[in-house]
User: Fold this.
Amino acid sequence: MSPLRLLLLALALALAAVPCAQGACPASADLKQSNGTRTCAKLYDKSDPYYENCCRGAELSLEPGADLPYLPSNWANTVSSLVVAPRCELTVWSRQGKAGKTRKFSAGTYPRLEEYRRGILGNWSNAISALYCRC
Assistant:
């Protein structure tokens, strides 16, 4: 086998062995609080073009049934990554008071909200102003 092929094979094996190679976001099934109660979703204010740097920074945990037509001032239009627990759904709006564009995120991990369109020219990164989380 050529040295180049050996190097590529070694690199592929090293990347496969690295935990969280798909990103730093927690798995959807791991959303639980330290006391064992259920968490509906977690929001993060940092994302990055590199998935391993997503779901970082400040974190906001939402309980089932969280209904926030007005996000706290330090969270309005700052969410860049999110994770939704199994059997839960997060509905978000682009304007306060549950107005503007809307989108539903089902159970799963969303490390880069830049990848989810909001209208013709926009995306959902730094665009969430209201939300409702149900399980």
In short: The first strand starts at residue 41 and ends at 46. Residues 4-22 have pLDDT under 50 and may be disordered. The radius of gyration is 17 Å. DSSP finds one helix and eight strands in the chain.
